[in-house]
User: What shape does this take?
Amino acid sequence: MKLATLLYIKNSQGDYLLLERIKNPNKGLLSPPGGKLDVHLAESPIECAVREAHEECGLESKKEDWKLMGVLTEKSFPNIGDIMVFLFEYRKPVNQIPPECNEGKFFFVPENEIMLSNIPETDKKYIWESILQNKNVNETFFLDMDCTNYPEIVLK
Assistant: This one.
């Protein structure tokens, strides 16, 4: 099983920082920054969040700057296999758009436009719905998805 993070970073207006990806998965679509854990180094999910925020966004942060919002498990995701994704929210506003990186170009998207944006349909239906519903809740949510018949997904 692969392990990864997604980073939910907002500006002072509450707009989300999204990356127009130039690589798969989700090439050409908008998604939060993030990446795979260095499991061979025993990197924790929170350490991965700090590292990925720095590598992709140039953001200097500490572990305590992040809040675990949710954990997503996807069984048999196409071209990836089984993956567990830790969804983190950055606790501080970031008002400057990071420069383009080797993953793509960044944009701020207003919260009320997220569901209308060029994001993967499955992300809209499951991940973003959970993020937006739980943004003011202090509880971690869990999503277990079977992607064997993708794009049809079964919540477990």
